[in-house]
Amino acid sequence: MPKHYRPAGKKKEGNAAKYITRTKAVNYLQVSLAIFRKLCILKGVFPRQPKKKVEGNHKTYYHMKDIAFIAHDPLIEKFRQIKVHRKKVKKAIAKKNRDLADRLLNRPPTYKLDRLVLERYPAFVDALRDLDDCLTLVHLFAALPAVDGERVEVKRIHSCRRLSHEWQAYISRTHSLRKTFISVKGIYYQAEVQGQKITWLTPHALQQVLTDDVDFNVMLSFLEFYETLLGFVNFKLYHSINVNYPPILDPRLEALAAELYALCRYISTGSGRVTGNSESDGVKEKESGGAIKEKEDENNKASSKADESELRLAQLQHQLPANEPGALMHLVEESTAIDTDDDETKECKSLFKNLKFYLSREVPRESLLFIIPAFGGTVSWEGEGAPFNEVYEDITHQIVDRPTQSHVFLSREYVQPQWVFDCVNARIILPTEGYLVGRIPPPHLSPFVDNDAEGYIPEYAETIKRLQAAARNEILPLPGDEDLDNSLVTAMMDRTESNEAAEKKMKVGCLFSV
């Protein structure tokens, strides 16, 4: 008998025992292919690439331990109950037993994904590291039109908008935003939360069209898990700043599609502060996913009214601003707690300090309402509910994107929206000469590219370096032919000196008043 002889029917060894094809896995679990895909997405199971593919290169392989992991999960039994429930409803409708069908439809089997979040992310930092795709997908669905009869439910879009607004409110309140970049795909953001850099992409504020070449069933499976994950992350972050979660929104503001404004008003009031010990917080953390779902059900019931539903859908379809900035301004108010911010957070907090912005109706409003308060600025807009109108005398900058203006105020500067993004990336107040209305602005440089590593430094990047050195009173030698760079640096030095003189004057005034 050979040394490695294995009789037929004995236990398999090697790759044949470690890996299983997708067809055999579906038959082993006794579920459909769609349910198998959904289980793999929710459990975080992905295909493997064994060194030796026993049954051919044209098949998809999974690890046998992962399939056994899915087989023992209680979620698979819930999906089987849902399948049986659908058959009962179909049978009742076929027998014309409408009462039984209605009773079954009103009591469908439900499940929660709270346990899976704790299972896949034992530590909170693990969830933060895996938050990039979550935020991108949630912001993508938040920008879709909320229309009944489409492939995406209206309540799912409202839930995504609420979660994205809660995340933006926290980032703005803690001044955690670090980088931003406008691209063809959308607007990239990068924030630093508890030492972890999180980057996500938001689509432009345009009318989105649902195409037929996208498998929305797979995307909705990912979204189902990401909604629960982001709800847990927001819960933890809100409690870190002593704010209760989930927030209780004003129904009137919520009906006007001003969820972020209502959310931030809740945070700014004293009723949103956390009361209780750490044990109760632990219980709330375990039940936060369920509380999120219950709050969604309450919002859906409230939106069932005809007038409120029409108003909500109309504003979402026309992409009217949903995150009104009034609450964001409340978020950036000085906290009475001990200042524990690091140097970078303090720098971001004071970038737009003592500056007041006014947004015209043609600029990307939602993005600017998120960025400007995150860096210490005060912002208003053209529309109902704004903190101040266009004729307010203390406005320092008006963001416009039209070549001509009906009326011009000499006490403020009119700049293009790119100026705000470039100032954020450079961490200094750039001169506005190159961003005036009607001019072609300088190149919009990406902060995610390392020019030294790429071996090419753009000309405008060198100019920004000189401006940064001038802001730190470290004047670099300038070439004699670059008059534009010299003028920009001179303007930066004059601006720095004027700011220092204004601060000294304020201190002297305070001493005399005392």
UniProtKB/TrEMBL annotation:
SMART domains for this protein: BRCT (SM00292)
Family annotation (CDD domains): BRCT_pescadillo_like
Coiled-coil segments on the chain, per record: none
PROSITE patterns registered for this protein in UniProt: BRCT
Pfam family, one: Pescadillo_N
Residues in BRCT domain copies: 347-437
Basic and acidic residues bias: start-end ranges: 281-308
GO molecular function ontology, one term from the record: ribonucleoprotein complex binding
Main localization (coarse): nucleus
Record-linked InterPro entries: BRCT_dom, BRCT_dom_sf, PES
Subcellular location: Nucleus, Nucleolus; Nucleus, Nucleoplasm
Stretch list, region Disordered: 274-308
Source domain of life: Eukaryota
GO CC terms in record: nucleoplasm; PeBoW complex; preribosome, large subunit precursor
Keywords in alphabetical order: Nucleus, Ribosome biogenesis, rRNA processing
PANTHER family: PESCADILLO - RELATED, PESCADILLO HOMOLOG
Role played: Required for maturation of ribosomal RNAs and formation of the large ribosomal subunit.
UniProt protein name: Pescadillo homolog
